[in-house]
Structure formats: C-alpha cells, structure tokens
Amino acid sequence: MAGKLVWVRQLREHLRDQYADRCLYWGMRWASRQFMDILTLIIDSMDKSKFGLPRFDYHRMPKFLEPLIRPRLVCTAAIAHGWCTSVFLADEQVSHGANAFADILLRVLEKVYQMCQVYKRPFPKHLWVQSDNTVSQAKNAYTANLMAFLVGRFKFHTTNLCYLPVGHTHEDVDQLFGVVAQLLCRQKTFEDPADVKRIVQQGLQDRIAAKGEDLSVEFLDEVRDFKTWLQVTGLTPNNCFGNREGVEAPGSFSWKLRLDLTSAERAMLERRGNTGQQHDVFCLVKQSMHAVDLLQPPVLVMPAERCRRVAVQPVGMQARIAYPDERVTQLLKLADACEYACGMPRAAFYIRGLVSQRIRCTIPPSTVWLCSRSQVRLDPVILNGTPAFRHLPDAMLWRMKVRFSP
Predict the structure, then answer these.
(1) Structure pTM?
(2) Which residue, among 298, 296, 289, has the nearest Cα to 385 in the 3D structure?
(3) What is the separation, in whole angstroms, between the first and last Cα of the chain?
(4) Is 10 exposed, middle or buried (0-12, 13-18, 19+ CB in 10 A)?
(5) How many CB atoms lie within 10 A of CB 149?
C-alpha cells in the first residue's frame, strides 16, 4: 500500500507540473492575441498516413496496387496566435529536419512583419516558440543558434523555445490537425498536392477567419541551409537536448543579451568570472517551463563579435533527397497503374515528376524582415512578467469575461 501511495503522489505531481506548463503557454498565447509585445507561435507536423498520393476510390485495394507504396506529403502547421495560421505541404524529397523547421519559422515571421506594415502595428519585441519535444526538428543546436542569432542581431529583445513534457505535447495545433484529417477523410479521391492544398484551404478558411487570423496554405518545395549559414560562428551548443539514462532533458530555453540579465543572473556569472560585451547573447536553461530557478548559470552562446560574422540571410539551399533505384522502379509502376488502370493522369504526372526531379521548385523569397535594419539596444528589458519568465509581459490568465446571449 505504501508503494502505491508513492506512485500516486508522483503521478499527481507530474500532472500538476504539466498543467502549470500548459497554463504558461495559454497565458503567452493570450498575450500574443492581445498584441502585448510578444509573438507566440506553435509549430508541429502531422502524421503522414493521411497524405498518401493519390487516394483511390476503392473500398478494398486491388491486388496489383497493394505492393506499391504511395508517396506521401508532410503537413506542417505554424500558428502565430492573433496573426495567422500557415500550413506547409512538402513532398518526401524535402528535408524535414532542423533546416525545415527554421525555414518555416522565418516564413511565418516574415508574414507577421508584412502584416505589421499593412495594419500599422508595432512588431513584437519578444518571441515564444512552442514545439514538439523532439531533437529532429526544434530541439537541437541549429535551432538554438538561430534563436541566439535573432537576439544578437536585435530582431527580438528575447527569444524563448519551450517544450511540454513528453506524453503531454498535444495542444491547439493538434486540434487543427484533427480538422485537416476530417477534411481529407471526406474526400473519395485526390490525385496530387494541388488537390490537397485546395481541400485544406477551402476547409479551414472560415474557421481561421472566425479567429480574426489570416490563413495561408503553401508548398514547401525548397528549404534554406541554415546549418551552413550559422556555421561561421564556430559555436555548437550540445549536451542538453536529448534524454540520457532515463533523465529528461531541459524543457525551457531563453535567449537574452548580457544587458538584460537580472541582478541574480549577473551574480551567478560574476562568481565564475565571466565578463564581456553588453550585447553578448546568453541562454538560460530550466528543467521545465514553470520552474523559477535555472539549472545552471547563464551560458554564453553567441558573443557579439561572432554574431557579426553571419551574413544577413541564408542563400544556400538544402539538397533534395534522391530516391534509391528500387524506390524509383516502384514509383514508375505506380505511375503506370494510375494512368492506365485507375484513370488518374494527374497523379501519374506528379509521381513521374518526383522520380525525374521535374517538380518545379519555388525558391524561398528573400526575407525582408531579416534584412531590415534593427536599432541597437541600449536599455534593458523591463522586468514585469511571471516569476518563471520575468523578462516577458505579464500575461494574466484568469481575467473575468462575460458572454451576452441574445
């Protein structure tokens, strides 16, 4: 009995901790919708099982199609709360790692910047990115360097990359994925990515407009090479992104200038004799989002001098993934079946285009926001946030609201 009580207490503590983390995300989401100088994004990818191309109008798959594995799209959604919802569709040959995550992040930031120009709103000063707890996309050294670069070049006062505990990462973006899955399941057939884009665009338009946000559905044909772009800094954060021997990796990372460190954080540095420029970028690591204490003293991740080595924006592209010969043979058989047995010429054309690299790739546009000149910061951020994130606006969660019925 005593052992069971210990497990029950641990479970209740675990559930309480994950709820505290969710409350922080909900607060930052609300602050973003109220345009309180913080931009809150959540980025995640959907299960690929719903995106096999083409979809056949068969109750039971014919035997000649069973061994032919269809190509699949990767659907990634990025919600900039209060601003826009962007859905990106990419084929199998596009890299879906850290470069893709960074490219999607910059595309959304560029869209928010353009909206600020149109609606005459000030661009947010703080960035909060909520992501899935996986090292393949967001929780890695390359994304960490990008977040530090955005602070070092004065694009944001602070950047924050946060993860909910493993097993509790489903949030509002997953609810959006549920809607997308329903939209696709209602379709008897679709042949190529253009059909999928049309279905998603038409199905989500009214839902996103009701939130007062813009919707964009676009193809992610090419991703920029952020790894090579940031390699000139010679910096590689490591040792803190993956779980080891049953110990969970940290779930909260914040980047800020030395100028913005609190007195307590500066005292931790002085004990270690760390000195440098006011515009050096430090990372603050915490075990969980709601934790108040740091796991270690602030870590110098990008000195100002090294940040200036980086070009204004990335220009190189990540190479597309080539199919092995066996897969090429299988896809060509599938294309023939689509054209001659199933009456799907557009699907056959798309599949043959994948094999022959005939897909017309759209090079990502230059990022006007990233190239724009940012004012050098001289004054520290105002500390008025929650105890867990003092450098962020105070997002009060439980404000009373009244709904008037007719």
Answers:
(1) 0.92
(2) 289
(3) 55
(4) exposed
(5) 24
What residue segments make up the domains of the chain, in order of their start? 16-322
* Residues in Cβ contact with 376 at an 8 Å cutoff, skipping those fewer than 6 apart: 154, 279
**Phi and psi, residue 49, nearest 5°:** -65, -25
What is residue 194's predicted lDDT score, i.e. its pLDDT?
94
Residue stretches of the chain with pLDDT short of 50: none
- Residue 13's pLDDT is what? 85
Instruction: State the residue for tokens 């690299």.
Output: 357
In the DSSP assignment, the letter for residue 365 is P
pLDDT of amino acid 330: 93
Beta pairing class for 281-286 and 299-302:
antiparallel
| Residue matched to tokens 């760390």 | 274
Which residues contact residue 389 at a Cβ distance below 8 angstroms, ignoring those fewer than 6 apart?
Answer: 24, 160, 254
Query: Rg for the chain (alpha carbons), in Å?
Result: 23
Q: 259: buried, middle or exposed (CB in 10 Å: 19+, 13-18, 0-12)?
A: middle
